[in-house]
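lol so apparently i was supposed to do this last week
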Amino acid sequence: MLRNRSGYKGSQSQKANDRDHDHASYLPTTNRHSAKIVRKESKYLLVCLFLISFSIVMYFQRNLSKEKGFVTVLNIPSNEKAHEITNNVKKFSDNQSWPGHAIEDVGYPLVRKGTNFVNDMREILFTPDSKGKTLMDEFIQIYKNRPDKVNMCGIRFNHALALFVAVKQLKPRLVIESGVNAGQSTYFLRHAKKDMEIIAIDPLDEPICGTKKRWIDDSGQTKYYTGDKFVDIAEFDWIGMAKNSSITPSRTLVFLDDHQEVLQRFPSLMKAGIRHVIVEDNYKRGEGATQSDRDGQTPKQLFAFRRKKDNGTLNDANWLYANLVSYAEFPALIPPIMSKKYEGTRKEAGGFMFHDDKNTDIVPPILRSDVNSDDLEKYKQIATKLGYDPELKDEESYMQFMNYNQICYMDLLPMAWRLVDMW
Ligand SMILES: C[S@@+](CC[C@H](N)C(=O)[O-])C[C@H]1O[C@@H](n2cnc3c(N)ncnc32)[C@H](O)[C@@H]1O
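anyway here it is w/ S-adenosylmethionine bound
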């Protein structure tokens, strides 16, 4: 076929043939045929190469983004000592990020040691029994019937729940309660377990903060060391009582809600082998209802000492940490963001979560009502059953669910018996 250099006039196939001819006309016919095959094959080869490289790129991209996604989701700190609170983050947060990650060492705003029941609050509270009832159902009934609906200077939802679960889990024979005030915490203790003794300690005979009457446990199993009978918890002869078996140290729970320096309470308890302690006033740095709360001596403040500035605290923090079997801050029910409709201001003394908290220094809440619709539903039901607005717009609803002081459980290392008499 003759080729018109000014343009093709023939059919498409002719044009194609001409193009082939253009390059291959000098080849013998058989060679020309194989050249066609080679060109065809190289086209396939190119397509295959493209597909393979595309798959490789996709593979790496997917895996890298997975990796990146994982880091973003759990936000694992680069510090090798850092632990996300493994169970909590996985179980509570539905794999959604939570900024606070507890570190197993002192010198951090959020610290933990070992594991204990506090890490399983969600399961403990929401796993139904054979009748379909949960511990949360039981708690709600008890909470509804509490004697003082406001309990101005005392525990509200989060802390009452922590105390209730601790008693259910630890099943103590004796609870030593330091700081009774209106008796609200005594009420929760008694309703969590009927058959245990309570030693209730308070220097005052009458409650402060506007409550007219103290709730008194009439079960006959609570001994009151209040008013004239007051003895500070550090002054009791716990060692003598342990030795003559009038207390069982391993089955004794101490509830500290007296705004006194925590560390000072420990020698007499540890010497007696008492190990289970709950500290209610576990204020963050700079927060506290009293000067003593703000003195840097709560477990949270001690553990969060600033390495360069607080040299004196370092020894105390290290000593306390070393003498613990475990330490965990109880989670609040819901995250601070749930109070975004609250129009009040942040409480200066602290002890209350606020919607714009950064949450880098608290553990994830029991319910991630901010990111999980089932959890949101659970929370709404709880709030509604108790007669509170789930949006927490009004002061009382806000105070009920946002009052949170990093209440913590510590399992103290009991002192060796041989050393007790020597020290
Ligand atoms: C925050 S209130 C207790 C609230 C109570 N636990 C509740 O949740 O309902 C603190 C109480 O600690 C008491 N207190 C002060 N010093 C104390 C001490 N050394 N030992 C025991 N209680 C003390 C105060 O009189 C006050 O009644």
